[in-house]
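quick one, 186 residues, struct below
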Amino acid sequence: MSHIALGKARPRGSASPANRFIRFAERLSLIRACSAILPMPAPSQTAQTLYLKLVRHRLGMFKKEYPMRVSHLYLFGVTLATIGLVAAAPMAVSAQDAPSTSAPSSPQLTAEQQAEFDGWPSEQQAQYQLWPAETQSYYWELSKSRQMLFWQLSDEDKIAITAMTGPGRDKAWAQIEGRAAESSSS
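---
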């Protein structure tokens, strides 16, 4: 008795050529039915090309080829990351070894200067803390009258006067004191 007559399925590897053809025909009719129901596929995926692909697959002639496997993409990404780390490592080490060129955040105040600083309102203390260290040091070198005028200047002007030296700084202070005298006499 044959297995077909009893309705028993044979194991896949031992299927007779007739059974394989029947399964092939069923799949082919399913493909044609789907193409009739579903919208028409792209011209490259017509029923004839699908049939040829199915035949090639069944004969073992057709194997899907991927231009690059996903595992290769992962390997490529890891390689690029490694090269980037190796290239960035010398820059990070040189940045750590470089001597610090920034000035201290605030100069050390004497006891007298600290007492004066503590007597200022909190807004004035906050404004003083925002100045660069050179400007903070320069402030304490000024006379009391110039310190009062210094507070009336904008932060940009304070930094500009701090950057000046010699006659340029003296000329700027002469202009500032002249304006202050004009505004107080008016």
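The chain has a mean pLDDT of 74.
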